[in-house]
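User: For a benchmark we're assembling, each entry needs the component sequences followed by a predicted structure for the full assembly. Here are entry 17's components. Please fill in the structure.
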Amino acid sequence: MHQTQILSCEQLLEVFSSSHIATAIYTSEELIIEAVTREMLKSWGKDRSVVGQSLKAALPELEDQPFFAQLQSVWRTGAPITGMGVPAQLLLDGELQTRYYDYEYRAIRNVANAVYCILHTSTDVTDRELGLEAQRRDQEKQEALDREQALNEELAASNEELAASNEEIAAAMEELSSINEELQQTQGTLQALNNELEARVLERTQELAEREASLNYIIDGAPVAIAVLKGTTLLIRSANEFMLKIWGRTTAVIGQSIYDELPELGEQGIFGLLENVWQSGEAFSGSEVPSMMSDGAGGQRTIYTNFVFKPLKGDQGRTHSILMVASEVTQQVQHRLASEAARHRFQSMVTTTPVAMTILKGKELIVEIANEPMLSVWRRTADQVLGKGLVEIFPELRDQPNPQRMRSVFDTGKPVSLPETPVMLASTDGVLHTHHAKFSYDPIFDQQGKVESVLVTVIDITEAVANRKQLERSQAALQKTTNELATLNEELAAANEEMTASNEELVRVNEELSASARQLQQLNDTLSESEQRFRQMAEGSGILIGVGNAAGDVTYFNQAWSRLTGRTMEHLLTWGWSDLIHPEDKEDYIRLYMTSVENRVPYTGEYRILSATGVYRWLYAFASPRFEADGTFAGFIGSCIDITDRKEDEQRKSAFISMVSHELKTPLTSTVSYVQVAQKKALTSSDTLVAGMMERAGKQLGKMTRMINGFLNVSRLESSQILINPVRFDLGELLIEAHEEATARVSSHRILVEQAGEAWVNGDRDKIGQVIDNLISNAVKYSPAGSLIKLSCTLENGQAVVRVQDQGMGISAEHLPKLFERYYRVNEPGYQQVAGFGIGLYLCGEIIKRHEGKIWAESEPGKGSTFGFILAVV
Ligand code: ADP
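Assistant: Structure for entry 17:
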């Protein structure tokens, strides 16, 4: 045997590499190329530099092909993998080419049966595969041709069929095209509709957004409390400031459940109401519902609300939220409760008052309340009137003005009062009764200040009116008698006598008065002799005596004062008695007293004082100043006598004189006119004797008229019926007019105007004219015939002065201050022949007093008199 040559490893690899069979050996799982044949390198398109690299690094283009995975599987499992005609994509000559291979991956194991390398053998079978492919394609082509042929035949057959149906189709096409047109049109319409819808949807969406915004705006700005609660959990979706205020919460509650945030509402049953609204879908409203709410400061307050819980529903009518609207009416309710209480008090006042009252509500005049006196005027029971309209109860009122007057109160809001109005009301039996009543309609206002009802007060004076009518009838009868009197001229003389008699009586009273004045004077003198005697006397007599000090305070009253006033001595000394003087006399008397104290001169006066029995007594007061031994003024000592009886006598006399004067006036006026007619007749029939007698009768009647007018003026004066109508006039001019009248009337004396300058004064021209006439008449009366009477009107110290000067008998000084007293006459020889009543100067004095002027007399016996008065110039 020949010796075997052992080849080295390199040699073996060299041999191996030059093999024509494409082979490669890989080791490890990374498939490191250990050895590769040229043939394999050729098929890879690589050179030997790939040896030692991993297969992945050498042939990266194989990455997404199955080979690496197969090799790794062989490595792991040891099981060989073969492939026949498998395409592989390889990078050859710079481009990726597809080649087909038969190959085998075989694991080579060592003695321990572990794989230590993989033998890869491969044969390029691209040409074979491509040939097979071409063959396959040819065959397919042939088969396709065959199929085409068969189809062609089939087509030819069906072509005919088609031609036939083509016509049908053409017809159908036409139909279709028309349908198509229609469809196109419809599509156009639909498109337009769609656009429109889209626009509307857009608009609606915007609208909704705006509404949402404005709803929130409205809620926030609404003047009432509003909240929206969403879902069954009643989530507070929104709540405006008012609602938060009512709740006593802040905006923090928004977005939270009302159950959690306002548990107090649950305690007051509000949650139950809300749940009801939710379930029923019906709104719920409450008015003036009281509830306790937090005041936001830890306390609680009662509030009253008017509220509505309204379900808000979606398109399907399902409630999604609840709208809470509430307005707080706490103030109104409190006001109403207060005014109801006041109204209740008012109504009970109406029902208990003894005057007939009713309250009529609204212009329908519904009787709300009518008290017992009202029901008796109406002759109805409460059941017959309450709740009914006044005109419904008394249909006869429809034609009478009262209901309209009541209604007018609702329009004007002003009370109406009707003095003594007749109204006819029927009793239930239909008989009409006339009532005379005073009505007053007063408005009753509600809280808004509108007239709600009218309070009718009725003072039924039916009886008083009946009495008055009776009186009027009696007066008419009296009038008739008076007229009859007019025809009885003869009675005039008798009345005249009576008048003279009363005059005498007056004179006597006057004397009595002077006598008592003198008596008082004497008494006063005696009193000052001794304090002790004075006191004894003072207490013993019925005369009221008081002693005052230099300051005018009274320091002593006698018992008579206590008896008269019913006041204790202490009371009189502390508080006096001036509050008891009659209000009409008080001012004058106090003024008289104060001026006398001031001037320390005696005074006399008359005034009324309230006696302990509650009636006024007339007092005649006389007071004179006292002086100490050294001549200093010590105060006043005053005495008063009760002259009530005399006063009453005087009043009766005055009333009598007034009545007689009244009664005389009418017949006297008739007599004057008869005498005038008779005088005219006598003149026309030239009966000068009768005419002369009639003229004298006329003059006498003129005198009588003046006298009677004088008496009437006195009585008017006393009953304050003389009214002064002031005008601005020239007193000088009035004096000239008076002079003209006097010269026409008087022929026995020479009357001259000495001076009559312009002097404008404010006063009652007629009454001042009467004063001048009176003074001229007196001058004529009390001065000898043929003597001179001088009149003048001058301005002195800015005042108008009128003087009437005569050359008559004159008046002695003692009478001068009394001349202007009522009924005062000088009772001296020479005066008695002159007729008069002593009222002329009294009237003059009163008229001038009412003009705030001054009147006086200057005279000396035997040297004539001057009477004058002063008025302010304006
Ligand atoms: P009658 O003149 O009616 O008596 P009067 O009131 O006019 O009343 O006058 C009151 C009294 O004053 C008169 O009674 C008279 O004594 C006196 N007397 C008035 N005027 C004069 C006068 N011019 N001269 C003198 N005495 C007069």
